[in-house]
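Session log. Operator J.P. requested a structure for one protein chain; no other inputs attached. Running the standard single-chain path with token output.
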Amino acid sequence: MNASDTALLHADMSAPELGDVSEDMPDALQAMPPAVDEPPVLRLLTVNMHKGFSMLRRRYILPALRQAISADRADLVFLQEVHGEHSMHARRVRGWQPVPQYEFLADGLWRDHAYGRNAVYPEGHHGNAILSHYPIVSHANHDVSQQGDEARGILHALIWHAAFGCHLFIACVHLGLAEAHRQRQFGLLRSLLETEVPEGTPVIIAGDFNDWRRKLHHAMLDLGFRDAHETYAGSLARTYPALWPLLPLDRIYCRGLKIIAASRPGHAPWSSLSDHTPLIAEVLP
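Structure written below.
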């Protein structure tokens, strides 16, 4: 969020003695309320990063993606399709980084990060990742892959937010393409929430739900969640494909938090950095 411009007040007067400040101060300034700290806004971003390649996989754009993510100044970043390792790309792709993609994205910008490996193959592996400005107290990854579909996972973490004065339970998800698979994966997510989330803990679940039919959306509402974009803008955000967004695949769901802003950046550079557009939201305790 950009800081608002502040007008400068110029006064052509000599400095008063300390004991005479209230007498010489203009009435308008005397009536001003004392300054208060701004509320601790938590800024969120989720994006399916397409393994660091452009929409049609013609260009490797991870450095540009890092620049775009860092420019947004999100406190929590939820990433899907993140390479942890790929030996063939390391040999053939120009500019390939020698470290896992999530480490390259987080380095020097986010305090902590967590990675959940979902798909494993001879050349390497990929999965979900979370970047956090706040301490990650614990994290775990759950394989929710279904036979006949790509490997999928739910990466969850508990973070400590000092300004909120509480822990937050957060999860980064990437669900399947088939409706039956998503329904089973949602059942696993619901069980995870029942067993892992301490009572009264605020929850954020973000990622690629592949839920273009909105069936899981209604199930999430039944669990007390609200979609950030629907709450703020009145509808689910269309995020796929990035150049002509038609389908509402990506979501940011919150429970126990106040949603104060949400948007779907569809402009450059985001329109050329993945096959999905990102989602951004701001929340308060």
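Operator note: The first strand starts at residue 42 and ends at 48.
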